[in-house]
Automatic annotation (TrEMBL), chain A:
Swiss-Prot/TrEMBL keywords: Oxidoreductase
Protein name: Aldehyde dehydrogenase family 16 member A1
One annotated GO molecular function: oxidoreductase activity, acting on the aldehyde or oxo group of donors, NAD or NADP as acceptor
Keyword Repressor annotated: no
Gene expressing this chain: Aldh16a1
Aldehyde dehydrogenase domain span: 52-496, 560-787
Family: Belongs to the aldehyde dehydrogenase family.
UniProtKB/TrEMBL annotation, chain B:
Source organism phylogeny: Eukaryota, Metazoa, Ecdysozoa, Arthropoda, Crustacea
Catalytic residue positions: K218 (schiff-base intermediate with acetaldehyde), K254 (proton donor/acceptor)
Gene3D superfamilies, per the entry: Aldolase class I
UniProt similarity note: Belongs to the DeoC/FbaB aldolase family. DeoC type 2 subfamily.
Enzyme superclass (EC): lyase
Function: Catalyzes a reversible aldol reaction between acetaldehyde and D-glyceraldehyde 3-phosphate to generate 2-deoxy-D-ribose 5-phosphate. Participates in stress granule (SG) assembly. May allow ATP production from extracellular deoxyinosine in conditions of energy deprivation.
Pfam families: DeoC
Keyword Nucleus: yes
Annotated InterPro entries: Aldolase_TIM, DeoC, DeoC/FbaB/LacD_aldolase
Listed EC numbers: 4.1.2.4
Protein name: Deoxyribose-phosphate aldolase
Amino acid sequence: MAGAVQKGPKGTKIAELFESMEYGPAPESDKTAQAWLDDHSRKLGHFINNEWVTPENRKWYETRNPCTGQVLAATVQGTEEDVNVAVAAARKAFGSWGQLSGHARARHIYSIARHLQKHARLMAVIASMDNGKTIRETRDCDVPIVIRHLYHHAGWAQLADTEMANWKPLGVVGAIVPWNFPLMLLAWKVCPALAMGNTVVLKPATYTRLSALLFAEICAEAGLPAGVFNVVTGPGSMGEKLATHPDVDKVGFTGSTEIGQRLRRATAGMGKKLSLELGGKSPVVVYDSADLDSAVEGVVDAIWFNQGQVCSAGSKLLVQERVFEPMMAKLRARMEKLRLGDSLDKALDMGAIVDESQRRSVKEYVDSAKEEGAEVFQVGAPAGCFYPPTLITNVQTSSRVVVDEIFGPVLVALPFRTAKEALALANNTIYGLGGSVWTEKLPLALETAKHIKAGSVWINCHNMFDAATGFGGYRQSGYGRDGGKEGLYEYVKPRWMGDTKQPATELDMKEFGARDQPSRPDIGAAAVVPEISAGVPRVDRTYKLFYGGAQKRPDGNYSRVVLSADGSPIAQVAESNRKDVRNAVEAAHKGQPGWAKRSGHQRAQILYYLAENLELRRDEFVNTLVQSVGGSREAAEKEVDASVARLFHWAALSDKFGGAVQETQLYGTVLRLHEPVGVVAALAPDTAPLLAAVSLIAPLIARGNAVILVPSERRPLPALDLYQILETSDVPAGVVSLLTGSRDHLARHLSEHQDIQSVWCLAESAAASRFVEHTSAVNVKRTWVDWGRGRDWFDGLQGQGEEFLYHATQCKSVWLTMGDIFAN
Amino acid sequence: MERNPGCELDLAWVNSVIVDLPAVKRRADTMGTKRTVKKEWQAAWLLRAISCIDLTTLSGDDTAANVMRLCHKVARPVRGDIVSALGVQELGVTCGAVCVYPSRVPDAVAALKKIGAAHIPVAAVATGFPSGQYSLKTRLEEIRLAVADGAAEIDIVINRERALCGDWQTVYDEVRLMREACGDAHMKTILAVGELGSLANVYKASLVCMMAGADFIKTSTGKEGVNAILPVGVVMCRAIRAYHERTGYRVGFKPAGGIRSAKDSLVWLILMKEELGNAWLNSTMFRIGASSLLGDIERQLFHHAFGRYAAAAELPMA
């Protein structure tokens, strides 16, 4: 028998604890993490070309543990010069990395995953100390998600040569990530970027730099070639330096809507790709048919995960009136159980807010709600940079706390009466990142998921993430997706496309397209004189605008003269102004929802009907084309025939691009739905004025959008003649509109309109492209521009490639949990 | 504290039950990752777990010999030098009860009496355990005989055949009669969750048993394919909470079957604390039905006391 050779713990204490049954401290050791910091003398430079780089004469920034205030290390405050060095390194590395086979890149990314697994606990501890989030979350969520992302994208690298055969890498990616998930969001950018053959320069957020630097060191250890992944640290302004760097091809940004808008404006017209994953005010919809106890746990996951500092936080709780009070009672009881404290304690629900300034901002929101008469329920929080879990009731749609993203552990709750009202409340926001639905009624759950305008909808769960499905926003929550095959498109361009980067053209944003009427009348010598035929003038042809399913006179009642290829006046077309834009957008929004609701089969039928009627009037269109473009009759015939074929192409794709089932780790089904973008404005080029117009209209309507097309300013007639076809082909009112006039003026009013979801500017104008990109920031609408470069509309890839599908749809991930069987 | 007297069967309540299994599973999966106890806290919690164990033997070959051994272990669950080293002699920790088949009740009562541990209750399974597929008359008679033999606690099984057919009225009526038959003996109602088909049925059966006057609701006989798993625990605790909120009566909870490690027992205690609160963290409100669990906890306590792990053979077998 073993003797009592060793003195046990103090008995009295155990006896006391036996009575109290309280939780005790459960600290995770930070010894190894501190040693890592010591190994670097607690001074960390940039990580460029697989080396630590500390330029002279730089300022240092002290990183503190938000929970304790303890200084962890100093990181360098970089300058533009440092950005240049990093971008040059990435550019150099792209030369070889971009040429590697998919398999070789797969091996590299796989190696990073393996090495990160070997350092998983170190990474979890560093991430927890760096951000203040609990070690439980970094250990069970952030790090495993990053590892999963790496493996998944090692797979995409392996398959790139076949699965993405029509695409190629962009070059150098500038990644800018925020402090709430510094590691996870870094991986969301880096994984697809590297898999597709790009190299990366990352700028981590000011508060949270350590995990990114450790990740970079691990990548180097894993054998990633020098320069493929680089980290530069510095103030917020350095992000803009990186984004606007002339040698950066793509900017991947996650962060606030405000900064996203700034980056959009700053990079406008530079020929860079941009993806933005921005803020949110995501609804949690709880029906009376929900398991309320489980819904309460869902709310915990939705709003108290990561201290509520989650862009997809379920911060707006909508509860069916009948169960509102019981739900609130359950929620309050549950909140009493939440534990806050030093993030390295393993038995906590919440750690610290990332920084005192952020904590103050959260507090100000809650104070303002109190002033407005809201009921605020809070549970205790430790002193320091902590904010208590908070439930606010007695607030409504007009309350600031219901409208704004608070980015903290603050939940607002509102009652609703019916599903229809729930959806109206859920969608009454500028954002559209996430949302969850709680009910055991499958038809109700699916219908709600369908109608919540957001990139991710979770059914009976919230804040689930997986590398195999896209995450990203609708509306002002941004565009582009992180994860899934859909996420890869953010890091590639069509194989046929050349380098698009260019210095932004000088452009007076106030003046561009400001003119809303002709400066002088086209009358007299330049006028269109009716032909005399058999002694009488031919019946006058009056071209009008087309919207709401009918021909409309322009609001301003001005016309512009259209010249033939040889310079003689051939017609007068309507001059649109902002009121015509307003009217067309209104009509488009009336028509679009019903159009999107039609089956793909029905949409295809209409596209085939358009083709039928276009071919019926082939000669007429050929004549107009010859007159407008001045080419041969054969060329015109080729264009009309190609237009008919294009309609067939998109009719075919009307019912073959609905989405996919995503292979995530969820027990259940995750759907990727390709939803319409909404109302899209498209500016057509002068080249191939009929085929280009058809090429823009057809994919948009095939996929359920409404389109407002601006025909070529110089050669509007071939596209304008389409309204006769539209009228005879059963195209519902509002689905297609045609606005003629000044391209730039229309570009202005269409891109300024905040109820247009996307603008396609393929009008071969660098200035219009720049203006559209710049102005799209007002409501973070999507854009697709050509930066003044044309394309061959007759070519299959260029005129009807996958690009069109990508731009005509937006991806929604619907997470369908399943299961009722647990035993016999 | 007043025993739960039960109430009228409220079928509207029973039929309104909604349970989402995937969400319950998520809650269950994170129970052991969101909370943990270390060091002295862990030792204290493990001692608490011991105090809640219904140390059980339910075998065809049970005789007075192994029942006696079990009773000794119930009275002295942890080796004396470990108790001394932890300094918890005054706590006088024993197991919650010894749990046997009805025929072995006299053996158990006698064995406990002989070692001066008559205060430790003897629990008997009854009512056609484990299947319950017997006539009501004999099922009730079993209870009366076991109580007469000295059982202070009766673990009854509910009628799964009626439950699966949705005849909650009969389930309720039978359990009511069983409660009457128990008299002063405490009644634990075994739902046999592994045979109820869905978690909604588990919740409904929990409510019906509480309405019929159960002192405890218990997961399983240990003989079904699925026994005490955490998702079931989450659901049953929520039912207990809802019943307490509505009636003011606290009903106890007993998971049984498959709980074998010290770590498991801590997670179940965490579940009780999180879903129900400290009032349920004692042997009047919480029991764990187990046979091999105690051995693992004793090993852990040995480590707390001496900083090393013991060989199984060094600790007294149950």
